[in-house]
Prior knowledge:
The protein is mainly beta. It has a domain at 63-196. The chain has helices spanning 23-32, 34-40, 105-108, and strands at residues 47-51, 59-61, 66-70, 75-81, 88-89, 96-100, 113-117, 120-128, 139-147, 150-157, 162-167, 177-182, 192-196, 199-205, 212-218, 224-232, 238-246, 252-254, 262-270, 276-283, 287-294, 303-311, 318-326, 331-338, 351-356, 363-364, 374-383, 386-395, 404-411. Strands 2, 3, 4, 5 and 6 form a five-stranded antiparallel β-sheet that branches. Strands 1-29-28-27 form a four-stranded antiparallel β-sheet, with no helix packed on it. Strands 7-8-9-10 form a four-stranded antiparallel β-sheet, with no helix packed on it.
Amino acid sequence: MFYIKKILRHKNRTYRFIPIFSLLASILLIALSGLTLNAWAATVPPEVQVTKSEIIDFEFDQTHALLTFTDRNSKLWIAKVDPVTGGFKPSNGRGLLVDTGAAFMADFGNGPEWLISAAGTEIVYTKYLPNQPQSPATARVAHAVSNNGVWIPNFIDDEVAYASPLGNSDKDDPIPRITYQSSLQSRDSHPFYWRELYAPASEELVPNTQGSVGSRRWVEGMRAVVFSSTFTNDNGVAETQCFLYDVDTKVLEQLTFDDGEKGAIFMWKAPEFDNEYVFFSMVNRNEIRVYRKIAETAGADPRWTAISSIVAPRAIPNIWSPEFFTHNDKSYIFFTLSPSPVILDMRIPTYLALTDLSSTGFRMLHNTKSLIRVRSDPELFVTSNGPYIYYNSYIPQTDTSPAIQDGVWRVDPGLGPTQ
């Protein structure tokens, strides 16, 4: 997950209260739309509770069947994932303590992340300087490396106040690299840097990121990063579009020129198109738009063109946390749907949905008969039975009590084992 806005209180299990004005009305709205939801999903898979423990913003390492996260006590943990059942070992996720003084997800909008390269698998995360108050001024980027099964944590740079590192996930690239941002910048400003992990002199401020909306991802198979950013166009109008920056050639490419405010972006090789690159962007918070580089007319130069669009329904019009995966030669996109435009609005139930590149609609993974829960931060792990989608679950906030964390749950979308 990559959230910029701080929502959860650090070292406190109580979530920020938002005045209740329409929880029952919102639930009723979803109920009234039940016929539509059920039409999208004739059969809804059961939800399974993986653990009752609070494990927020966990990330999976598929290759080694591991998960990592930082708890509210600033401890960085690793646990095993059962490749058959998908269960956590131990169930509370606290299998191996890797480091202390690590930033909780809410401090800077993101927890630890896996970095995968030909050099091996590492964890990158935000860590506070020891023996000093935990604050943006004492935050630094750090990593943990496994040496014969022993995880060794260390600062990447203990001099400059940086936070929220994101590593590449390219097992064939011999040079690991990260993006990160200043821990001192405002919540509304997200310019970011990149560097090769073990080459400090390679650090560079990525161009045109002063208006970055907090979405940045490495592209597997490229030494390039994609992101969305707001800028003023030639007509003096502010717009938010998608960009790709090649860190070797230093070429910045604007990918989109169409209407709509772009948000989260992911680019990958799509098996449906002979492993050509495609990407999706969240648009106006209510749409997933997929792009492919094609020639619009015979003889024309290929350009990035929208090839499909998935729009959220009116009853639950807000999309959060979209991600992709490929399975059995097909690409899928999963995301959270919410009636509320407020990120992590703990008053109102949310739902997970799944789509593919050939669809103009999507499949609901829950309906009105499902548990009344706030579901957030979905993540994918592929078991021997097929892909499972995991997520944090909360009993919604009421007029008299805060939201109550309900552990980690999963749902099996029924895509079957890897062929």
